## 1
Amino acid sequence: MIFSQPRLVERRLADAAVIRVPRATKEVYKGGDDRQPGRIVFAFEDTYFWGSIGPGMAYKQQLYVSVMASDATDAEYEAYPHLYRLSYDKRTTVRKQTVGSGTLTVSAGRYQQNTMNEPSHTFAYVDRARRLQIVWHAAEKAVDLDERGWMISRMISSGRIQHFRPTSLRQGVRIKSSPRTQVSTPKYTGLKCPSCRQPFAEIEHLTTEAITFRCPACAHRWHWLNPRDTSARGDTH
């Protein structure tokens, strides 16, 4: 029945593209990455509360949508976003098929993070004609297996590039942002992560009211609620 289907909502990816994403997810990142200059990445996630007690976040869903450069190579399309670090035990490819003008690859395994260990799927879609890459992790308990196929097909069909310049992202990423938000390449700070204690912290979001840090080693995030403060607040997750 239509009322039992997960609801998707349309999201604008800055001025670059439009796509429908799972309503339960929230946008947590948008911008370029010097390590992957052929794309800009938009990340959405839905996290477990209890499963996230530990060295890193546990995700019900994690979605990465990449708008690719017009001159992006096949290898760049095949590579997952650098920020994607989910671990599956005994990952296997379930199927690979043509969908629209692109290719969808579905893999399965057991997602392991902290106390979480459950069956999950990753849907990876690449479409050179539309300059899109979609990588979507969905845990079985969060999204029913039958509904996942419906959702990924709607996401794929809804994705479209808008009036986006420059044609090659290698000439410089330009994304319009709200006055309160500065969108830029993550900046490495050398700060230690309060979770894993590694000195790899990077600035993920910077506003006039707060700074969000992310550890690329364990994916832990935390905030400074007042950028003028010299000590991290307790608002971590």
## 2
Amino acid sequence: MAKRFVLVDESEAEEKFATLELGPPYSEVAPEVPIETATGGLTPLRQTCTWKYIVSSSLYGPIFAEVEMRCRFVKQTKIIQDANSNEVVSTAFLRCLHNVKANDHIIYNSVEYPISSVDAITGIGGGIIEYEVRL
């Protein structure tokens, strides 16, 4: 139950405020974790997938590089708009900490999915917490 104070003058207010017990600073409760050891901003990243992105193009097509990353993969069917504003059916989405781009590919459980859209999830301070990717 909250306590109510009836204040008469400012000196009494300063006295009461000085005796309030405040919790520890936020940095002591939840210290900052380096991005390499983080489990994700909003969701735990307990799965592993491979991100294929285009490095360059050659006469025979694009050349891809692959990076293994932690993610959260969820099968979910939804009609979305891709990067070209076309309506497509998204079969899954994943959350990750890497800045993936549309038209890259994600390999999960030996199935390759093209990335349709990417949304950055921002925190209160405006910093990017993680990315939500529609496949």
